[in-house]
Task: structure prediction
Amino acid sequence: MDQQEMKAMTGKGAVDRLVTSGMKLGLGTGSTAIHVVRHIGMLMKEGKLKNILAVPTSFQPLIACEEWGIPIYTLNSKEIGGQLDLTIDGADEVEGAHYCVKGGGGALLLEKIVAYASRSYAIVVDETKIVKNLGLCFPVPLEVIPEARISVIREAERLGAEGTLREAVRKAGPVITEHGNLLLDIRFKHPIDPVALERDLNQIPGVVENGFFTRLRPTVFIGHTDGTLEIRE
Ligand code: 5RP
Result:
């Protein structure tokens, strides 16, 4: 199986095992999580899933929900009341304790708000995302207030990381997030403590949120090249 096929199999597999009619669902962002949305849309069209209430984590799943006719809400909607049954999302890196780095698609802020407001959480990844230590290979994104771009890079250096501003593709200048902020990608040179960093990075003035997700114990669905779907509880 190639990587695209692994992503599709994993997204579908998670939906088939976890999603039932009537659920309030957080829907993640990225090229793996989009298969979750599509499969839910397909099952709804076939009448196999009903009364799904979806809270998308960015424009990407929101537009996919519109295309598939999946009813869209926000976390603040009366019908949702700030709490979801389940969120399924992708990740950039996952390690043994199921701590993750997320935000490669730039949606970490709403992804974290939605994840932490969910009773249960699942991550869908292909096998290339499993690592021993977070933050050494894939950089950890920070969503920052534009005015704090340089001062946050300085503070990140004091924590042992090198930071760069994320540049946009097919638009001159930096990526502007869906919340009007900038993204810094920070890379560590030595193994780090993701639990402490998730807490400490948010103490830097101007950091809105960071891409460490360590306070949940997600079920991790891992697609392998041989076509098997591994589930780590
Ligand atoms: C977006 C994310 C994505 O879930 C993460 O980047 C993984 O994406 P993909 O499945 O395309 O590799 O955190 O902000």
Notes: The CA atoms of residues 3 and 182 lie 29 Å apart. The chain has a mean pLDDT of 97. The chain has six helices and 13 strands. The chain has two domains: 3-131+215-232, 140-211.
